Amino acid sequence: MNPLDWTIAEALDALAARQISAVELTQAHLSAIRALNPRLNAFITETPDLALEQARAADAARAAGSAPSLSGIPLAIKDLFCTEGVRTTAGSKILEPFIPPYDSTVTAQLKAAGAITLGKANLDEFAMGSSNITSAYGPVENPWQRADGKKLTPGGSSGGSAAAVAARIAMGATGTDTGGSIRQPASFTGIAGIKPTYGRCSRFGIVAFASSLDQAGPMARTVQDCAILLETMSGFDPRDSTSAERAVPDFRAACARGVKGLRIGIPAEYRVDGMDPTIEKLWQAGIDWLKSAGAIIVDISLPHTKYGLPVYYIVAPAEASSNLARYDGVRFGARVEGDDLIDLYERTRAAGFGAEVKRRVMIGTYVLSAGYYDAYYLRAQKIRALILRDFQMAFAQTTGVDAILTPTTPSAAFALGEKMDDPVTMYLNDVFTVPASLAGVPAMSIPAGLDPNGLPLGLQVIGRHFDEKTVFAVAGALEAASGFTALPALRGSAVR
Amino acid sequence: MSLDPATIRRIAKLARLRLADAEIPRLQGELNAILGYVEQLAAVDVTGVEPLSGGAQMALRLRDDVVTDGAMPERILANAPDRIDNFFAVPKVVE
Prior knowledge:
Oligomer: heterodimer
Largest sheet of chain A: 11 strands, mixed
Largest sheet of chain B: 2 strands, antiparallel
Helix content of chain B: 25-40%
Order of helices and strands of chain B: HHHEE
Number of strands of chain B: 2
């Protein structure tokens, strides 16, 4: 088997058995990146020298008998995580010159665990988008192909991370998810990805988009690999005021726990009008798989589901307009000179931000402005409370369900250029992923099948706050039952 | 609620974004489409509902009021577009 096709679990075993060195595994990935990244554009910044230096250190640590948990595993890091000494752009021109003097907590923990940094993965600008087309560094191409040969989007915002993992030019990746930015690209590229409970992974050092929603999580090719990565990425961090003071559970062990006796909720409101029959069929297949594995299927109602997207498109831009106020051309980032300070701010921000970021900053500024705050922002926060209450009632102890099963996305990956006529059409991509973000509950996408064009489709498992273990157990059962083995056309292991 | 060009200019001013006149009609159309989409929230009965500001299932922590870092001017200024000694430099603000 080509090492590029190994899972992280398999690679860790091979490294431990000295079948391969970290340097060899890293070099294999670096040459696959050289071959495929010019086309995929999955990385904004490649860090081959750093990767090889880390790989040599990993081999030395292993030789000394002290290899930490991810020693020698090559990863892509979404370019939203600050990395000490390595440029961090957030997909924006305004951060084009920014070299962080520190590491995010998540990347620091991955480095301490011996993971290798292959480079910084492309994303929608400031993680605002569902197709990667808003990146100032060009769109990412999905390694999967459709019969008509049109270039497809890998989804977004973690599109570079997803494409890199699916194309076997990284074994895993970090992503962030504000309204679906891990789960939707995972679904579009046939990989797994989990947005853990809000507070599970530290937000320290992650470029902020919407702070009450932003959450980091892993993307990988198997459920177990996601569990392995999440164990290292999560944990309490005093530098993030919303970081949860909770021990990190054994996520890996939960993956094979099974679903016998678990109550799985099927929310009626996710069966939207005009739903693609392929998606409906896949959802039914997921229900049948879980039932065969011993789960109890329960029809449930999440009555405020349809308000999730409109609430999100008030709350997220409001927080973004506040967070992005820091880009002033004074302390870091790009600057455009002006006649006075205000002129400098306005010119810097006009030149540095792309169209989608400007739209969201404008909407956010408006809904927070005097006279409109109550009608928009405050009302949205109240409906957000109702959405949380829907989930709390569904998950109520003794009478409620243990997890919820839904589709991840309303369609398979679309072509670059499609669905791009107006912002609202693009926003509809996130209809199934946004409610879990607003409620702060963990949610995972697992590849479950192919559409008639041969493109991957995901199912989403949503769990109780801080009960990622049950999410992994259900996801593991779905993964085993689906037998998803399809491979994308463009992949490192198929490069000659 | 529909935004007119004057309101678009006012929001851009608040957001510190320079807009060219030519950008305003497009932005006006897009922002009004988004506001039209979120209009459906007006139909929800929110009587007696407390607003939810975040996803965290906990009260925010307070930390001890002590100095935890400092004395690193070079690291802080390393990304400054312009600096004079240990200060960020900006156009003159006081005549």
